[in-house]
Amino acid sequence: MPDEPVTAIDPADWVCPLPLRETKRIVMGHGGGGILSEELIENLFLPAFDSGRGTGGPSRDSAVLTVPAGRIAVSTDSYVVQPLFFPGGDIGDLAVNGTINDLAMSGATPIGLTAGFILEEGLELELLGRIAQSMGKAADHAGVGIVTGDTKVVGKGSADQLFVNTAGIGVIPEGVDVGPERVRPGDDVIVSGNVGEHGVAIMSVRAGIDFGTVVTSDSAPLHGLVAAMLAADASGRIHALRDPTRGGLVAAVIEIARSAGVGVALDEAAIPVPESVASACGFLGLDPLQVANEGKLVAFVDPSATEAVLAAMRGHPEGAGAVVIGRAVSEHPGMAVGRTAFGTTRVIERELGEQLPRIC
Amino acid sequence: MPDEPVTAIDPADWVCPLPLRETKRIVMGHGGGGILSEELIENLFLPAFDSGRGTGGPSRDSAVLTVPAGRIAVSTDSYVVQPLFFPGGDIGDLAVNGTINDLAMSGATPIGLTAGFILEEGLELELLGRIAQSMGKAADHAGVGIVTGDTKVVGKGSADQLFVNTAGIGVIPEGVDVGPERVRPGDDVIVSGNVGEHGVAIMSVRAGIDFGTVVTSDSAPLHGLVAAMLAADASGRIHALRDPTRGGLVAAVIEIARSAGVGVALDEAAIPVPESVASACGFLGLDPLQVANEGKLVAFVDPSATEAVLAAMRGHPEGAGAVVIGRAVSEHPGMAVGRTAFGTTRVIERELGEQLPRIC
Description:
The structure is a homodimer.
Chain A: H1 35-49, E1 63-67, E2 70-79, E3 85-86, E4 89-90, H2 91-104, E5 109-120, H3 125-142, E6 146-154, E7 162-172, E8 188-191, H4 197-207, H5 223-232, E9 238-242, H6 248-260, E10 263-267, H7 275-284, E11 298-301, H8 303-314, E12 323-329, E13 336-339, E14 345-348
Parallel strand pairs in A: 5-6, 10-13
Antiparallel strand pairs in A: 2-7, 3-4, 5-7, 8-11, 8-12, 9-11, 10-12, 13-14
Helix pairs in contact in A: 1-3, 2-3, 2-5, 5-8
Domain PurM-like N-terminal (chains A, B): 60-172
Domain PurM-like C-terminal (chains A, B): 184-331
Protein name (chains A, B): Hydrogenase expression/formation protein HypE
């Protein structure tokens, strides 16, 4: 090391040798960790993610959060939905709400989200800006900050426009214990409202089909609804929560049935499927019970708490349509059986793969 | 709801109607949230991520971690490196080590990672399995569990083989306060070892050029090294830490200089650039100081602590080559100036974009 201070160019004489960059599209250098990356963060992401919350927006490499002693929930999801924009939402608010909901299903109060972007070279900055704004708005609406992020760029043809990953951190309040292993035969199965809307909204845009009524995605954060439910039952009688996303209501119910070692008996006539969803699904050959939702939850609740929990749900905007749709039973563990509108019963099977790819 | 129990098919009579699936490649259904998704998780990811740790592997939608009251660090990175396998590592261990290192740079002890996969339809399961195994092994080596994950599949041509996102959670020990805002003029700048190896390793495979000596990636977790450094200085004289990944040593130093409002004077002759890296960079027209590293750190340390911190670093495998390479100065804030081997000085500028795309 030199002992004398280095006296190079006087900064006052130093002029940025780079032209102002007026590109309207993502170039490879936006993912390079250099000046272009910094410009993207400072001019596009930070303003979008700091929408008036005054948090200063996300930090660069890692963020610091303060937590009480105890349990935290951690979750991650990547979002690859196509189209990027659809009735009722876009990939941005989906990426915020979806990860918030995964946290909420463990009873956690979300306290921060990360955002990782994989961008295709040539993506319009205006489009990226709209999606970032949408994420910021959704995070703001949910009261959860986007605390740190990352951006990578891949060459044209190596990705499809953009993919977003979000991870989330939540604090599980003391005394809250929600998980499929707590489900018991006799538990009521409650759904928070209409099913099938998100999947049909995506499909209606993708197929370019007009079903008469526009079905909009139900994309919404559910941690407020969960908090209301937990407040209505202080004695741990909400046994399990699940958001029926990919695979829909059926996948959510069967996953819990398998984890808990119980069967589930569904009253199919009680399941709220809007007429518009039913007719679109009929046209497309989809089962509305296996179509993704992005703003609904399924709860397994001790019957002694059902009345209080239902009342709390119905008092919350995201749970206004809450109804009991079935019951956990000791028969046929790991399976769901439905009583149809005709009074007959059938085994309800999950899809092998998916009805509709890139739904979220 | 029916009051009587549903008596459908006796499960004992029920036979899985699906054939055993012998596919060797990823199909769209692996991302659908149905039976194929479950098979992928149970047969490929869980065994890879539960490599003898007995943690039961990652949980499905969210994981629960127990933390002390205080500060946690949260970080995320997506990994899009090509080729997926390179001398010294692969996208899997990079995804584990890279996010661990982001946490370590805030002084945090990593306690859990998430893993999000975006897979291209047609990807060989064997290749995915190798990468998952590598992630599990790296996580095991670092003593940090992969606690939850997510898998999406996009159609052939909509992604380039696979992309991995990891997010990480770490606990910042009480009393640890590391951040660029703490850097002061006079701080020594220490690098933990040779620079430029990761980028040259990638480039040598990608360009198919034989430089005589095989340069291997330095991919490694640095939280152990950081813990040793922090233990050597109980009085908060390690002011800032940064892992010089994209943009290399220069980007790391300039980012800290800009955040801290100090200048940095580097003694270029003191910077450890292996001969093999220097000659490869010369051939390729790259600046070794701007080539990515994946197992090195830069530390800004109060000079009164330099001796103890250096000794601690040199006693750790990942810091054996630690040296002082420069100093924070009050002149030219936000800029790095190098004293060359010829005794002249020059302003060191960051790249506009990147020298080498998809390096991590």
